Amino acid sequence: MSKIIFHIDVNSAFLSWEAIYRLRHKGGTQDLREIASAVGGDVTLRHGIILAKSIPAKQYGVKTGEAIWEAKQKCPGLVLVPPNYDLYETCSAAFMEILRDYSDVVEQYSIDEAFVDMSASCHLFGKPEEAAMRIKERIRETLGFTVNVGISNSKLLAKMASDFRKPDQVHTLYPEELEEKMWPLPVSDLFFVGRATTKRLLSMGIRTIGELAASDPAWIKGVFKKQGELIWSFANGMDGSTVLEQPPAHKGYGNSTTTPYDVTDVETADKVLLALCETVANRLRTDRVQAGVVSVRIRYSDLVSVSHQKVLLNPTNLTLEVYQVACRLFRELWNGRPIRHLGVHTARINCAKGYRQCDLFEEIDYEKLFRLDEMIDAIRNSFGMDSIMRAVFLGQPIDHMSGGISREKRSVNYETIEIS
What angle do CA 395, 396, 401 make, to 5 degrees? Predict the structure, then answer.
């Protein structure tokens, strides 16, 4: 093969990492991977969903992304453990470091999976299957958790292969194996085919990936537009993407948060928006980029979502400028109903130019605001994100740096947890 691509995926990553940590560092004797268990958010903070589950829990029908109360109904004895993203990031970094010992071209696809281009280095470690086994065994022996490895000549087929039987397996899916290994699978298993697309395909009489592959591409494109062309190509094993050592530039920056209680007044909403703008603008400045569009998203207590956006006259990464636009958008959008989730997002990202178009009637010293933001960023980088905050957040239950991975998911106080 001209190309040898591996897709390496950690089995039940969050749960596996928690299990290994408890066994190796906290004196635990019970392996969470061997019992019906799951990582779940804090129900009291309305973050109560399943983030990862064990194979025994899966046998009860427990699904990632479902509400904890639903999972408990299926499996009353389900053992729940809190999320610990600091631990996950540490384990992920160690996982990626091992992969880079086998190739110079590693693309981290998510916190628990990566593509590895082995085309230039596979011969050093044997045949592709032998090299994959070496990587898999080293990860298990060194770090304690298991992975699945998919092997092919493209990213798509390697990823499809890694999703075959789990855990701790190596699978191949070469183009000549499509008919035997991939085409009999349900169409919902195809990468990029979500729930809505699956429902539509089933209504069209397309049940398997093979049936999609054999269908008229013009018909599929006519129904699904550009996505139809893509999924038909995927069903036929066609994928021209390459493994990217450097991740592509962000097309947008955003953060959102589910509030622990319904927001019913403008003042509270403004504080939540300010906390979100703090983190979004900080990320923009860290990457030395500016945003030309700001949008606000509201999810009401009945889970209905609405959004509104504005194109800016001048791209910006200033916290207060993003916040002012977000507040204006919120007031134009909100209908007064109780809010459970707020988000601030940006788009039309470009490199920060270091200057902005002047307005003769401007009353704001933007240069001064930029220097202020830079100083705040420097203090937080040196002494922690809580080392400086705006006075409006003092004595308030709202986290002054909201969005992304919430604070309670960052770490776990194991002294308050009984570990068996």
Answer: 115
Helix (H) or strand (E) holding 24: helix 13-25
Handedness of CA 180, 181, 184, 187 (dihedral sign): negative
Instruction: State pTM to two decimals.
Output: 0.86
Which 3 state secondary structure label does DSSP give 317?
coil
pLDDT in tens, 144-182: 999 999 999 999 999 999 999 999 999 999 999 999 999
Strand partners, 38: 53, 80
Q: Rounded to whole angstroms, how far apart are CA atoms 81 and 23?
A: 14
Of 272, 371, 263, 268, the C-alpha closest to 326 is: 272
- Calculate helix-pair angle for 13-25, 85-99, nearest 10 degrees: 100
Cα-based distances in Å from 228 to 155, 191, 200, 374: 19, 13, 11, 45
Q: How far apart are alpha carbons 158 and 152 in whole angstroms? A: 5
Three-state SS letters, 136-182: HHHHHHHHCCCEEEEEECCHHHHHHHHCCCCCCCEEECCHHHHHHHH
Query: What 3-state class would DSSP assign to 329?
Result: helix
Q: Which residues contact 29 (CB under 8 A, 6 or more apart)?
A: 23, 420
pLDDT reading at 320 higher than 80: yes
Catalytic (active site) residue 113: yes
pLDDT confidence of residue 361: 62
Name the active-site residue from 18, 66, 107, 113: 113
Number of other residues whose CB lies within 10 A of the CB of residue 343: 22
Question: Is residue 258 a contact partner of residue 46, using CB atoms and an 8 Å limit?
Answer: yes
Q: Are 405 and 85 in contact (CB under 8 A)?
A: yes
Distance CA 396, CA 83 (A): 24
Q: How far apart are CA 243 and CA 169, in angstroms?
A: 22
Chain mean pLDDT for the chain: 93
